[in-house]
Design goal:
By secondary structure, the chain is α+β, with helices and mostly antiparallel strands. It has helices spanning 4-18, 48-57, 87-90, 146-152, 215-218, 231-234, 283-287, and strands at residues 27-34, 39-44, 63-67, 73-77, 91-101, 159-163, 169-174, 187-194, 227-228, 239-246, 249-256, 300-306, 311-317, 321-328, 336-340, 345-348, 350-355. It is built from seven helices and 17 strands. The strands form three sheets. Strands 6, 7, 8, 9, 10, 11 and 17 form a seven-stranded antiparallel β-sheet that branches. A five-stranded antiparallel β-sheet has the order 1-5-3-4-2.
């Protein structure tokens, strides 16, 4: 049975659409999502009518996206579709969402549809306002992780965002998916390691201490500059995405924590001498990180692994070879990469450790 509230809100919506202030008919698209890069804010509401109400009360709101799922997220946009004949190209399919445009787009800084739309309010007002900062954009809106930012800001791009600490700090967030690390983004940078240098060899203090290393200078991107961020001890995770770069090519592999050991920080893993519980991945996947050929003896993989010739903080170790991050021992004088002693192969790489 239709409730009084639903009837009232339906009448309100009809009157709003027909009001003479706009010679414009609002449009609703079910199963569609409008990517504007012009978010005003994301809020949680009870239903789509709550989302409609918030957009109506916000002077800069042109349209909104409403998540029909359990999260009931309402994303208010400062932009919309200029001409509904282009709706198919302006909207993306997403069965869990509804897109509703309440007001017309009346101003663009560029005439061509192939150019970037205006970067200010494109509604009925002639004034331009800078977009309000979103989660992670400023210290006052620091987030707990890159994953949290992406969950609230679906259009968030790769780049540096503020995470929570005292004081808050900027860290690189990989918001787009990484090949071989799954279909989702939201990865938080922890370390960048130059395998030709000794900064992060197995025995160096940075694995057992909380000190950051060139965080402010090199922690906001994936440049080939070594760094260790506060995320090492402050950001909990379930999965790691490990990358090795040789020449201009980065290869990746995903490693997950075992059940019962999830949702913890990186720092405690390296405080104990024994191996920590990562889910097993194949030898072939490790070899996919760098051009390599591990010897056929028994291998051990995970964290804090060692034998009488080598030590590896994260990686895979055989009797005559290894692939790893934070390496050490007599087998090879590198801190990240691939070594095989019987074939005299030593391949340092530039390593990336990201978590989510």
């Amino acid at each position: 049975m239709t409730s009084i509230c639903e009837i009232f809100c339906g009448v309100f919506l009809l009157l709003y659409i027909l009001q003479p202030a706009y010679s414009f008919s609002s449009r609703t698209f079910v199963g569609k999502y409008f990517i504007s890069n012009q978010e005003l804010k994301t809020i949680k509401v009870q239903d789509w009518m709550g989302c409609l109400k918030h957009c109506h009360e916000e002077p800069l709101c042109i349209s909104y996206n409403f998540d029909k799922g359990l999260s009931k997220r309402c994303v208010l946009n400062k932009h919309g579709i200029e001409d509904f004949i282009y709706a198919d190209s302006d909207l993306v399919d997403d069965a869990g969402w509804i897109f509703h445009q309440l007001k017309p787009v009346t101003k663009r800084t560029n005439k061509s549809r192939n150019m970037i739309p205006c970067q200010c309010n494109c509604g009925s007002s002639n004034q331009c306002y800078p977009p309000p900062p979103g989660l992670g954009d400023v210290p006052e809106k620091a987030a707990s992780s890159c994953k949290e930012i992406l969950e609230q800001r679906r259009q968030a791009q790769d780049g540096a965002y503020y995470l929570q600490a005292s004081p808050s700090y900027k860290v690189y967030c990989q918001m787009t998916p990484i090949s071989d690390c799954g279909d989702e983004g939201g990865w938080t940078l922890v370390m960048k390691i130059n395998g030709s240098k000794g900064t992060f060899r197995f025995s160096e203090r940075y694995w057992k201490e909380q000190d950051a290393y060139y965080q402010e200078k090199y922690g906001g991107d994936l440049s080939e500059k070594e760094t260790k961020l506060k995320t090492f001890q402050l950001t909990s995770f379930d999965d790691m995405c490990l990358g090795m770069k040789t020449l201009n090519d980065i290869k990746w592999v995903k490693i997950a924590l075992k059940r019962g050991q999830q949702n913890m920080e990186m720092f405690p893993i390296f405080q104990k001498p024994y191996q920590f519980g990562f889910k097993e991945i194949s030898k072939e996947k490790w070899e996919g990180l760098v051009e390599s050929n591990l010897d056929d003896t028994q291998t051990d993989s995970g964290s804090n692994i060692r034998n009488d010739k080598a030590k590896v903080r994260i990686g895979i170790l055989a009797s005559k070879s290894y692939i790893g991050f934070g390496t050490g021992g007599a087998m090879g004088n590198i801190s990240c990469g691939y070594v095989r002693t019987d074939t005299k192969q030593v391949q340092p790489t530039f390593g990336y450790i990201l978590i989510r």
